[in-house]
Amino acid sequence: MNEKKQIINGNIFLIGFMGCGKSTVADCFCREYGMEKMEMDEQIEKNEGKSISEIFAQDGEEYFRHLETSLLKQFGTKKNTVVSCGGGTAMRDCNVQEMKKHGKIVLLSAKPETVYERVHCFHDRPLLEGNMNVEYISSLMQKRAPKYEEAADMVISTDNKTALEICSEIIEKI
Ligand code: S3P
């Protein structure tokens, strides 16, 4: 077994803006540290039988936010799990409380330009459709920053780092 595995007993919740690397880092924790992974968006899509874009278009953002909260409330007794949250999950205090009950909250940050580079080719983020530019990303990021920072047990910048470097940095800090 890879000697890096089994280092973490608790759970890690990755929060942060769209394109900050939550899914990539979660995959790395899974691969390199033998953690279980939960992708909130993926789980919601599976439960609802439709994509995030369809949920936003057909049921509205509030309904989606309600789904995020119920998913966290069902977290149960899972251990050794890394959760890749949606970019808006940490905006609700009740979600943050739920995450704090079960593990450490790690905020991944990136510059607006980096986020733009990572997300501009995709069309699966309803909040960025029609707003796909650095200025909008930067303004929404600034608006969200206080809530992200308040929720976080630690903040890790992801610009110019590999997923493995980011994981190691998180492990050291934990
Ligand atoms: C959202 C981020 C998305 C997804 C939804 C809303 C947000 O997840 O949950 O489109 O409010 O920032 P990612 O951060 O994984 O892109």
Major β-sheet annotation: 5 strands, parallel
Please indicate the percent range of residues in DSSP E strands (runs of 2 or more): 5-15%
pLDDT averaged over residues = 95
User: What CATH architecture do you see?
Assistant: 3-Layer(aba) Sandwich
How many strand units?
5
Broad structural category: alpha/beta
CATH topology tier name: Rossmann fold
Which term fits the overall shape?
globular
Can you tell me about this structure?
The chain is built from 8 helices and 5 strands, in the order βαβαααβαβααβα. The chain has 174 residues and is an alpha/beta fold. It has one domain (2-165): 3-Layer(aba) Sandwich (Rossmann fold). The chain has a 5-stranded parallel sheet with strand order 2-3-1-4-5, with helices on both faces. Helix 1 crosses helix 8 (163-173), helix 4 packs parallel to helix 5 and helix 6 (112-119) crosses helix 7 (134-151). The relative contact order is 0.21. The structure holds shikimate-3-phosphate. Shikimate-3-phosphate binds next to loops. Shikimate-3-phosphate (S3P) is lined by residues 18, 22, 41, 52, 86-88, 125-127.
In short:
This protein is of the alpha/beta class and 174 residues long. It has 8 helices and 5 strands, in the order βαβαααβαβααβα. The chain has helices at 22-33, 40-48, 52-59, 61-73, 93-102, 112-119, 134-151, 163-173; strands at residues 11-15, 36-39, 81-84, 103-109, 154-157.
